[in-house]
Amino acid sequence: MITVTNLFKSFGETPVLRGATLTLSKGKSTVVIGKSGSGKSVLMKSILGLVQPDSGTIMQDGAPLDRTRFLDDFGMLFQGAALFDSLPVWQNVAFRLLRRMPKAKARAIALEKLGRVGLEADVADRLPAMLSGGMQKRAGLARAIATNPSVLFFDEPTTGLDPIMARAINDLIRDIVRETHATTLTITHDMTTVRTIADTVMLLEQGKVHWQGTVSDLSETRDETLRAFIA
Amino acid sequence: MNPLAAVGRTTLHAVAAVGRITLFTVSAIVHIFRAPFYPRQFAIALMQIGWLSLPVVGLTSLFTGGALVMQIYAGGARVNAEAVVPQIVAIGMVRELGPVLVGLMVAARVTAAISAEIATMKVTEQIDALITLSTDPMRYLTVPRVLAGILVVPLLVAIGDIIGIMGGYGVATGSLGFSPAAYLRNTVNFLEPLDIASSLIKGTAFGLIATTMGCYFGINAGRGARGVGRATKSAVEATAVLILAANFALTAVIFSL
């Protein structure tokens, strides 16, 4: 379980996070929605240590988050996939594995993970630039799950994809989360993603959690801010 | 607006930038001696900085050596000192023009490429991805490039020196009537070990500057295509100025020996 308490972060004079508090329950899928500039990305980057918060605490299983240990058991799908341009697809997927095992074994696992996300073995030796946006997202997803991590983050997983590909990625994420029982955090604008993969939904508004509930609570909410967002 | 405040603000920004660049450079050098090391990245950097720079370094040195001979010959003729052309070309190429030209060519070619590549990685979140894959960008991106620069730029300088001297040799013997054997003998006999050492020391310093600046500005790039463009421009400008400043400082130190 990951607990974020009273996280504050400003960039210059502009406050972005203003006391964000949330809990990512073990084995559950938490989806954070919110307008652009509401602090979703900064929240995710603060948990990862990519942004240093001004104040607040981040705990894992009751102890302060040890980032080295946390990242060793972690996978992430970035908004633009963030595949390394200079490496073939299989080496992107096996990036972490190549430090832990022989090349042949790492490649075999990479091919298996590529198959899991619906990519044929023939893409393995291509460079990322030779793949479509949807294929890059799939490869990024394969990289995220390559080591079967217990924590997975998804940053705008369907942004820039056509509706059919977006549905395919949402279904893949849902199935993978179910299979791996990973603790997941997703940030998105896409309500289809929310309805497909969320156990818990949170609305971030002006740097803090404004609303929290389940997918079924969404349709019944009377919260004006949330209704405006999901309309 | 208070003009004094503007001067103060600019000075503080400049001092802070120098401090950040110094800390980055020290960190890069310290990390060379710390595991893990990425041999594949190092091999790629060696190839890109060294092997692929050879054509531009060779052509620049060749033409400069040839032009230098003509200038020194014309100047020497005014005081009946045409005979010292081989010696002056040798010392000019080895102690000054060779290292500076190679340094500036590396700045144009390598620093620009490094900063643009790393800046693109920054704006496409590839550096964030590295961190989430438990990989330190300093070790994975910076150390292989800086180490390759330190090792390979002195070699480029040595090659540039030789090609520059041979360019001068070609012009001197081909069109100015110098004896080939005498030209080479005068060149070799005139150069001292300190001349060659100063050339290689400058090459090492320029290799460090060119690669460190490329990495620093790349990693600290702003957002989008504009951020990449600014990072590349700043990296090349800073490298060129620092190479010329370092050349002056090193020349002053070596001159005093």
UniProtKB/TrEMBL annotation, chain A:
Keyword Nucleotide-binding in record: yes
InterPro entries the UniProt entry points to: AAA+_ATPase, ABC_transporter-like_ATP-bd, ABC_transporter-like_CS, P-loop_NTPase
Keywords, sorted A to Z: ATP-binding, Nucleotide-binding, Transport
Gene Ontology molecular function terms on file: ATP binding; ATP hydrolysis activity
Protein name: ABC transporter domain-containing protein
ABC transporter domain mapped to chain residues: 2-231
